[in-house]
Design a protein that fits this description.
single chain; mainly alpha; 1% strand
Length: 377
Amino acid sequence: MNALKIVLFASSAVSSYAAFLYKLASIRRGWGDIGYVTMMVTLVLQCLTFTMGAVSLSVVTFFGVQNLAILVLHLSAVAYCISAQILLMQWANPLAEVRRAIRAWIIAGVVLCVVLTALFFVGNRPGTPASAFGTGSSNPVILVYLLLFIVSQAVPCVTIYRQCIPYARSTTKPWLRRALRMLAVGAVVLFLYCAARTVNIVSPMFGLSVGPWAIAASLFSALGIVIVSLGLTMPSWGGHVSNLVAWGRNYSSYRALYPLWHSLYESSPGIALEPPSGADRQWSDLHYRLHRRVIEIRDGWRALRPYMDRAEATPPQARDQAVVEATKIKQALLAKHSGVTPALSQDNGSFDDHDAKTFAAEVEWLTQVSAAYGRLS
């Protein structure tokens, strides 16, 4: 079980260092921002916490003091929770409004660290096993120390959760909203860690043994830290994800419009602002190219109006409006190719009058028409 705990601490440390290195790349432009500095301090403390977690399970003495690595682990965990709380307050409020609250959290953290340090050195008698600070002890000083440490972890979990939910509802930034919700989930998971750790600590007092379930605390801790690491960095990388998704959606639409556009271009080459590009150029300026394709489809369709027969009946299978419009375009292209102009042309059907409220809606509509046209062809 000790080996599994080391693996879980190491996985938490890896996610922490990954988040730290990701944010470190922005140090030049972010160093003057107090929010960025707080973020970096939080991530450094997170890295230190879980690095010391792995060290404390494999090192008996640290700087010549038995179990000192456990104290460093706990003190860094306390500082980490307080720093995360301060970061969240800075995300959701102007700094001037939360200065007093930040000062109160820092003072509380310093006092708590002093008390924990004093209890540790009083209770850490020669020969005290490291397990006494992990699974509990009959020594009342160590027991108070552990329970006080658990409270110091549980309280920020509750306050962070209570703040994240209303902040997430009020913010207009989508990725900040997602980050706050993820932090709320992480706070719940870490609170479960606190609950599981409390059970591990107090169960020996009642003659109970949790057995293999003792590992649950480490599992909740590792999972919670991975979630929190994602939540802390999400406002930075979330925009890139949105851009990538939008690019993929635009590229899919650009390709889906090709059958309809190609036929209209062959019929009326003048609709193209510039000659068709090769496949290698389709990857660049995609937003612009998609706009051009929509405009050129509309221009090509208008060029076919003299060949659209208003008197011709719609095929019975064309119940879908996109199929109706695709059928009209197909018939008009055939009429133009044969040089036959219908008696009743200048069709003013719904394709001409289709009123898309947004560009995305227009693309979606034309994509349906293009797909129907491709099936007809």
